[in-house]
Fold:
Amino acid sequence: MGFNIDKIRADFPILKRKVYGKQLVYFDNGATTHKPQQVIDSIVDYYSNFNSNVHRGVHKLSVEATTAFEDSRKYVAHFINAEDDREIVFTRGATESINLVANSFLSLINKGDEVLITSIEHHSNLVPWQQLCEKKNAKLKVVPVSDDGNLDMEFLDNMLSEKVKIFALSHISNVLGTINPIKEIIAKAHKFGIPVLIDGAQAIAHLKVDVQDLDCEFYCFSAHKAYGPMGFGVLYGKKEWLTRLQPYQYGGEMISSVSLDKTTFNEIPYKFEAGTPNVSGALATVAALKYIKNIGIDNIAKYEDDLLEYATEKLLEIDKMRIIGTSSEKTAVISFLVGDIHPYDIGTLLDQMGVAVRTGNHCAQPLIDNYCIPGTIRASFAVYNSKEEVDYFIEALKKSLAMLA
Amino acid sequence: MGFNIDKIRADFPILKRKVYGKQLVYFDNGATTHKPQQVIDSIVDYYSNFNSNVHRGVHKLSVEATTAFEDSRKYVAHFINAEDDREIVFTRGATESINLVANSFLSLINKGDEVLITSIEHHSNLVPWQQLCEKKNAKLKVVPVSDDGNLDMEFLDNMLSEKVKIFALSHISNVLGTINPIKEIIAKAHKFGIPVLIDGAQAIAHLKVDVQDLDCEFYCFSAHKAYGPMGFGVLYGKKEWLTRLQPYQYGGEMISSVSLDKTTFNEIPYKFEAGTPNVSGALATVAALKYIKNIGIDNIAKYEDDLLEYATEKLLEIDKMRIIGTSSEKTAVISFLVGDIHPYDIGTLLDQMGVAVRTGNHCAQPLIDNYCIPGTIRASFAVYNSKEEVDYFIEALKKSLAMLA
Amino acid sequence: MTIEEKANSLVEEFQMFDEWMDKYSYIIELGKEMPLIDEKYKDPQHLISGCQSRVWLYAEMKEGKIVFTADSDAVITKGIISLLLRVVSNETPKDIANADFSFIEEIGLKDHLSPTRANGLVSMMKQIKLYAKAFQLKNSN
Amino acid sequence: MTIEEKANSLVEEFQMFDEWMDKYSYIIELGKEMPLIDEKYKDPQHLISGCQSRVWLYAEMKEGKIVFTADSDAVITKGIISLLLRVVSNETPKDIANADFSFIEEIGLKDHLSPTRANGLVSMMKQIKLYAKAFQLKNSN
Ligand SMILES: Cc1ncc(COP(=O)(O)O)c(C=O)c1O
Ligand SMILES: Cc1ncc(COP(=O)(O)O)c(C=O)c1O
Structure:
């Protein structure tokens, strides 16, 4: 399929929005993406036509909803090339997926053990491990990042050992855009028998994810950052690992049988899905992934790369421009500062002109502290952004800088 | 406002649905209710007009979404008459709300302490406490139920003591429909300083809930059982209790500041809301609660009571009818058996005639075991059900029984 | 008759029914017939855990063929079991292992055998295949 | 001038601006003026934790009135602070405690002061009220 940006933009109703009378230019896709009509329609269709609680229902609606729900699991498995759809656990989002694994590792970590993360992690892939280590008197070790935004591989090599019980790192940094060489890192970790969890929150909408090729033990993402609904996420886990882990929450379909003395838990993946599942969320997530599939993830990656290159060039023409994160392997995320102007000031003025960027520490405070900066301005792109929008943004930025000069 | 059933039914698009060519009669509302157009519209409106990640964003969409999100919290607080909107924690559902509290009680329970529940609890309000007790070597005590479906208050009185660290019970039984006298029970528990958690999953859409009047420490419910979206729920907790409890999941807005050495958590309620919140879920939940408010919860209760009475009378005309749960205080939930016909057989034939009921143990296996039955057939009503539907159901039931005779 | 032939004849038989009521009445009738299993095998060991209706399944080899007997506490489930067994019982392990159960769909009972239906039938069908494979393996040793 | 009069005059002043750019240019100008606080009070004790821009606030009693000085590392935040302080500083604890800050909305800066805006301004306004109440209490003893 050819890549038709106008057609794509037309799929997203919110892009017609005006703010302060100006056309919205939305570059805060790292925080959340907008939803195409297809995703919105899938929610309307579900609630209007076959809404029901799932599993164990004898009536038609319940059978339909359950079938659709389990088909979603199959589709997600297919999308990330999992071997088996029982390896797909539905959660509320990437944060919950990570917390689930960290919590279930409570029984697998002992005093003196090590947990490895990197210094570019989002709080959601940092604090759960920090708290786990605190509870179990284990050691949190942190792979440092170089100035250009790449992980320091020499350090990393030295930090791998049999003492490490799990290595959790992001596929793509939400601040720097760096694509970590995770396939290589996973292979290194496996040499020491270390299971690896990949936080794919920033990756799933931007590049091909193949969990079998990566060979990671766990992979997590949120639907809302991939054109899908809020309140829905995925945890992929290798069968043997999911089987090994303890349940996290109790109640509903995760139970096989209960008496007041004893409870038997259901099989994977159900044993991790307590309570009534979010059927609408699953279906809308599939609608989003199908939307991506339909355009083609490689087409998306190529298009966003072009945008990145174009925007980077334009930005670098600006005096005192400082781009944070200059890895040669990065996705369409640009964090920057101009001179010593506070990011909040630039963000505020851009907003007045209709341009939505994110400013601040992007929930990665240790990383920001590492660079000794007050935060950054972050422009992050999605498939519906255009060069015209980049041009407008650059103009608006220049205007802001003039005002602040 | 007068109660106009035709107008109400017209609000629910799914009610036009046919199954096997027959008009759907949906009596599985205890499992999940359908959604009025107003709720569906609120989701469409959100994603089409002001979708954004919330908190900390400097741009207009983010401010709008955040304001709407926090206004939802205020509305929910108002709806259940909480003293302060910081007492409202947004979760994925009742099950998660209960798990959150049970998990946070890990540090408040010691060996030999007691946790009190009742024998009519849904698995979601049973297994979390059972597992907590197992982990901490505490004792799970269970208040028995009498044959009519009322809690045995004499037993209850004898089981209250200073040893009990928390008492978790349902407002309304999802199998029996019994409305427990929770205000009285809470007052009794408080005499021994016992905090009380109320599982309100089956109550919120059916009767007035006033947490200050009840004086419970915690109250939980799911939106999807109250005309709201799937994947969204509420935990109400008294300020001093929420403040006292440890966070449950880590990452995102629940963090105040992070360094690699130390993390400071945010204030209530944020410290319990890890990860990107489900803004759309919050708004759609408010749309659902407003829908209830608009009709008037007392009007709803009255209407459903009439339905209950009408259906009960009609059912009792059937030979060998055995209604399980005959408390004088009950909501519109009827569990029944006919002779020794297996519930699955009746459910299957009703389904063929377009009538959706639930059969089985309704995730309350110990309760079902208590009655020594293979499960029940459960018809549970919502505001959009009608006497005509009850008539059709009774006819269909009679036809089923004739076929099975 | 081969498994396929038996399945086809079943499908034909069901084509007679225009009305769902007739179809279910027939299934219920089948379900009401004498227990399809020796009472002594209705024990936890032969119980297939389905959520709602309980299903017991017993298999034995007789003259190179597997004979299945089964039961359920729900009459409709039992009726469907009796249809299933009519097709697959008394066949060789190999034939059973390779059997195609799609006739269930053709006779309009698909919903009952959807994996989402917690009536024990899906587990029973899995169990039938497992038995067949186990006996196959045993024979080949 | 009373607090209310000062607020009204500010609102009038802002009515001059047709264009958002003029308004913000003015705020930025204000923000660029000399630090509004003695450097020695820019310490953690006087820091108001907002997420993005940091805000420092110091209060002292002078002749029965509270004098506020403050600063921020973001220039726009600082400009808005300077507007706020122009209105509330140098007033009695009682008047400040009762002051109505809705003029901020009238001059079109509401978004900056929405509780969802993590720029420290909301916390600063809360802190101003807290100071006023604390001084009030102290005086009444
Ligand atoms: C009494 C009761 N408690 C808890 C739950 C669990 O609710 P959810 O599955 O929405 O978390 C239910 C519903 O299934 C219920 O009926
Ligand atoms: C790298 C990374 N990890 C994890 C998360 C958390 O995702 P969520 O808030 O959807 O749970 C985010 C997004 O905020 C992220 O960018």
Remarks:
- The first strand of chain A starts at residue 18 and ends at 19.
- Chain A has 14 helices and 17 strands.
